[in-house]
Amino acid sequence: MKRKSAAVDPVARARDALRARGMRWTPQRRALLEVLVEASGHVTGAELIERARQRDPETTPSTVYRTLDVLEDLGLVSHSHGHDGREEFHVWPASEHAHLACEACRATWEIEATEALAMTEALARTRGFAVNLSHLTVSGLCADCRRSADAV
Ligand SMILES: [Zn+2]
Ligand SMILES: [Zn+2]
Ligand SMILES: [Zn+2]
Predict the structure, then answer these.
(1) Residue 34 sits in a domain of what CATH number?
(2) In angstroms, what is the span from residue 87 Cα to ligand 2's centroid?
(3) pLDDT tens across 42-56, in order?
(4) CA of 90 to the centre of ligand 2 (A)
(5) How far is the CA of 151 from the centre of ligand 3 (A)?
(6) What DSSP string describes the chain?
(7) pLDDT at residue 2 above 70?
(8) What is the pLDDT of residue 4?
(9) What is the mean pLDDT of the chain?
(10) Residues 60 and 102 in one domain
(11) 135 C-alpha to center of ligand 3: Å?
(12) What is the pLDDT of residue 121?
């Protein structure tokens, strides 16, 4: 088996980071990391627990959430909230973004920093408030759902 360099292998990177914090590299943590590497888009904590359990049945929710906390501190994972407040995790987030969440069809969309600029700049100007973009979810109705609501 060819050894991947620690710099490019995200599992090795996470392992080293957890160890540097005095956390043990357990089979459960490895299972979670493998699941995270394969995940794309937004995944809920419940989905991560279920997938990690398929690899290692001894995985507990508290292990998953504790590990996610540390990974988030390290910048390997970030979370946002769906319109029902449920946490959604992003793995190795490429860029900071906010979300739109439709309350009717439950679809979500990402808003890039440039698109949110009018909103974040206004709050910085009027309130001196720095928005945490990745934690911003705007709930409402999407264009399609508004159209079908109008049609009734
Ligand atoms: Zn949160
Ligand atoms: Zn909708
Ligand atoms: Zn997102």
Answers:
(1) 1.10.10.10
(2) 20
(3) 889 999 999 999 999
(4) 22
(5) 30
(6) -PPPPTTT-HHHHHHHHHHHTT----HHHHHHHHHHHH--SEEEHHHHHHHHHHH-TT--HHHHHHHHHHHHHTTSEEEEE-TTS-EEEEES-SS-EEEEEETTT--EEEEEHHHHHHHHHHHHHHH-----GGG-EEEE--HHHHHHHHH-
(7) no
(8) 45
(9) 87
(10) no
(11) 9
(12) 95
pLDDT digits (tens, 9 = 90+) for 83-115: 778 888 987 666 789 999 999 998 989 999 999
30: containing domain: 10-91
Mean pLDDT of 61-72: 91
d(CA 137, CA 29): 29
Is the pLDDT reported for residue 6 higher than 80?
Answer: no
Ligand 1 center from residue 84 Cα (angstroms): 12
| 30 & 62 share domain | yes
Interval between CA 135 and ligand 2 midpoint (Å): 21
Measured in Å, residue 152 CA sits from the centre of ligand 3 at: 32
- CA of 140 relative to ligand 1 center, distance in Å: 19
Nearest ligand, measured from the Cα of 41: 3
Q: What is the CA(99)–ligand 1 centre distance, in A?
A: 13
Of 49, 71, 91, at which residue does a domain stop?
Answer: 91
- Centre of ligand 1 to C-alpha 96, Å, is 14
